[in-house]
Design a protein that fits this description.
This protein is mainly α. It contains four helices and two strands. The chain is globular.
Length: 70
C-alpha cells in the first residue's frame, strides 16, 4: 500500500505463462476498479469477516478488471 500511496505502481509478475498476465496498477487504478469486485467480497471486508479468498477476488479485479482464476 505504501508504494501506491507514494505514487508508485504495484506489479504482479506472471512467471508461469510467459508474462501474459503481468500487470501494473496505480492508486488511481485501485480507486477505479475496486468497485468492480464481487459485492460479497467487499461486504465481507466491511463486516470484518474477510479471508484470503475475498482478498484474492478483490486483487484479481483490481489487476485484471475481472476474476480470471477460480
Amino acid at each position: 500500500m505504501q508504494i501506491l500511496r507514494d505514487g508508485g505502481n504495484l506489479t504482479f509478475e506472471d512467471v508461469e505463462c510467459e508474462g501474459e498476465y503481468t500487470r501494473s496498477i496505480s492508486m488511481k487504478d485501485v480507486h477505479e476498479r475496486v468497485r468492480l469486485a464481487p459485492i460479497e467480497a467487499i461486504l465481507n471486508f466491511v463486516k470484518e469477516q474477510d479471508d484470503a479468498g475475498d482478498a484474492d477476488l478483490v486483487l484479481q479485479t483490481v489487476f485484471y478488471k475481472e476474476v480470471l482464476f477460480g
